Amino acid sequence: MTDSTPESPAPTPTALGEPAVRLTAVTKRFGKNSPLVLDGIDLSVAPGEFVCLLGASGCGKSTLLALIAGLEPATSGAIDLPGTDGGGAKSVGGEGRAALMFQESALFPWLTAAGNIELALRLRGLGRVERRAEAERLLHLVRLDGAASKRVHELSGGMRQRVALARALAQQADVLLMDEPFAALDAITRDALHGELTALWQQTGTTILFVTHNVREAVRLGQRVILLSSRPGRVAREWTVDIPQPRRIEDAAVAELAREITDDLHREISRHGQ
Fold first, then answer.
1. C-alpha angle with apex 108: 105 to 114, nearest 5 degrees?
2. Cβ atoms 39, 47 nearer than 8 A
3. What is the pTM of this model?
4. Would the CA dihedral through 105, 111, 116, 119 be positive or negative?
C-alpha cells in the first residue's frame, strides 16, 4: 500500500510492469581479493516512487547509489533503467539518466546560483535564452526566487542544497539519487527542506532513491524504507510507509514506525559485531 496523499499514489513496480530502476543480483567489491561490499542486491523502484535506504555506516548505501549513477561498475549483476521510448532496458551508466545529489552541495564557487544550474542545462544542449528561462523556473521550483545572481558564498547551507537540487532536476534524469543531502544542516533547516522536498516530489513525480542514517527522516519522507544489512550489504527488510502526507518528524505514527525500524537496525549491527 502506498501513501494516501492528495497526489496520485505511485504504483508499484509489479503493477507498472517496468520499474524506473531495476537491480538484479548486484554485487560489488573494490578489488579482486577484497571483501564484498554489496552482495546479491535485488531491488525495483517504481516510476514516481520515493524509496529510502537505511543501514549502518559502511553497509554500502552510498556505493549502491554510485553504481546506479554509473560512477562505479558493478562486480556482477545488472543495473538498468528500463527505456520508455522503445520498451527495451537501457543501462544506467551509458545513458546519464540518473542524477546524483551529495551531502555537500558540490557547487562551483565561481558561478552564481543560476550559473550552476545553467551548466547542467548547457550540457543538455540548451541555448543561452532557454537556459536562462529554465534556470529561473527551477529556482522558483525550489523557492529561490531572487537568488539567481548570488554567488555560493552568499548562500546559506540550506540555499546551497536547494541550488544543488535544482541543478539535479535540470538534468531531466529519470531518477534522482540523494546521498544524505540534508545531514550537514541544522534541525530547523532540515525540517523545512523535508517539507519542500515532499512537495516538489508530489509536484514533479520524480523517482527518488534517498540514502540516510536518520530513521525518522526515512519514515517522514519515503513510501518505502529498505534496510541494508551490515557489510556485505544485503536487503535485510523493507517497510511500506502507510502514513498520509504531509508528515512531521514528531508525528506519533512516524515515531512508532521509526522505533520498529531502529530495533531491526540495532539487531543488524549486533549481528555484524558478533
1. 90
2. no
3. 0.87
4. negative
